[in-house]
Amino acid sequence: MEAWLITLVSFCVCVCVCVCVCVLIFSTLSPPPTTVKTPPVPSHIPIITPILWLRKSSTELEQTLRSFHAKYGPVVTLWIGTRPTIFIADRSLAHRALVQNSSLFSGRPKSPATAAVLSSDHRSISSASYGATWRTLRRNLASEMLHHSRLASFSGARKCVLNTLLTRLKSASESRHCVRVIDHLQHAMFCLLLFMCFGERLDEGKVRDIARVQRQMLLRLRRFSVLNFWPSVTRVLCRKRWREMLRFRREQEEVLLLLIRARGRKQTVLNDDVVVSYVDTLLRLELPLEKRRLNEGELVTLCNEFLNAGTDTTSTALQWIMANLVKYPHVQERVVEEIRQVVGEGEREESQVIEEEELHKLGYLKAVVLEGLRRHPPGHFVLPHAVSEDVVLNDYLVPKNGTVNFMVAEMGLDPNVWEDPLGFKPERFLNDEGFDITGTKEIKMMPFGAGRRICPGYNLALLHLEYFVANLVWNFVWKIPEGGDVDLSEKQEFTVVMKNALHVHISPRI
Ligand code: HEM
Predict the structure, then answer these.
(1) The pairing of beta strand 503-508 with beta strand 476-479
(2) Which atom of ligand 1 is nearest to 452's Cα?
(3) Is 16 part of any known ligand binding site?
(4) What's the predicted TM-score (pTM) here?
């Protein structure tokens, strides 16, 4: 009796365990049940709504999304162009997607029509699918260009660019009552990124040529993205736009290839005294799947990405920070006071430059930079992400290959995290020493994104911002010109810039 009872119980336990294991395996591997609903789609008329969304600026898109999120919750779907995009406004959901489920959310949607021309068929870091090519390109940038010792090798170039910027600002302020700042900041950042990219200082004429070609492409990228919408039709209907895109790309290839080839010829004679440039690393790189070196089109694509990613983002952030330092003079004075106290004035007779090695002592300066990035992130969205499998987020199905984006600017203004979110109050970062901008543990703001696709240049960007802000306020007093004002309205270009560019009166501080 006892024996058969024991056998029966053991059998039942075995069956139960087997069933549980099967259910567990099945539930982790199988797609979520089809009963899970997709995120709400606010009023949608096929063909018409996608075209209307496509025509909206991202500022308009953001305003409308804000009202949709208030009505439908933190996850909504909009049909923009040919595909639906899911927009996520909540920082905890962003953390769950980008950090906790990073491998699922790290793809990029394909843009087959324009990609062949603009990104050498997705062979840039930002456009590559999540896989071996992306990993190789990204690792090359991160470990060959952006790691600590390589960044240090460019400190001479940074100082040189800074001195030129200070001289240009001084002469502009002497000849005019007020100075339009952004032109100077953009020029300085561009010169610096050009040097890092090609390893040499270019003369003013060449810099202007390349800057013109790069800008004309950059400012029209949105216009060209329309060509991915029903390509066989738009290629005919928007013939002029196609031709314009091809012409711009040709011009870009002409100017960049001259520099790439020249650097390629120097490769054979590079010695230890010469800095290693981004192109040098690319010329040595091998694509893992194709087992070949990069071709010239791919080199142009990657140099273009490097120049764009590092110039406009940083100069935009720099302009926003300086605008707030002009609007709130007490913050500007506190930065100067900190420099005076921590770094001291004594040893600076010859040079008025705050050195890079001194920046780590300047906690309030760091707080000012972080507050600038929170209040005015240069990108109000990240680049679109693609999902590699069906996944359930906040009870909604995010379908395989679905496009997802995140409302970066909204997260930085979340009143549950940030008291008086519209104010410019760097002090809030002083209590949070070692604030984690990567959002690894928790996302409070994400100006550089988060997870595996986080901006690989964030350390360089922070260095540039701290170095230039410190030196700009140390060397000049920045003021609103008489009768003027600092208008913090925004407009979308490649990044979200000041609608009315900052004009200031500057005078030497020392
Ligand atoms: C203030 C300056 C900068 C800001 C605010 C910024 C912001 C961003 C953001 C939001 C993304 C998209 C992340 C995502 O898709 O989830 C990104 C991607 C990227 N950024 Fe930056 N960035 C800055 C400076 C730089 C610099 C200096 C470089 C390099 C020179 C750089 C290189 C890149 C690259 C290559 C990507 C694509 C990463 C990938 O897809 O794996 N960025 N950046």
Answers:
(1) antiparallel
(2) 41
(3) no
(4) 0.90
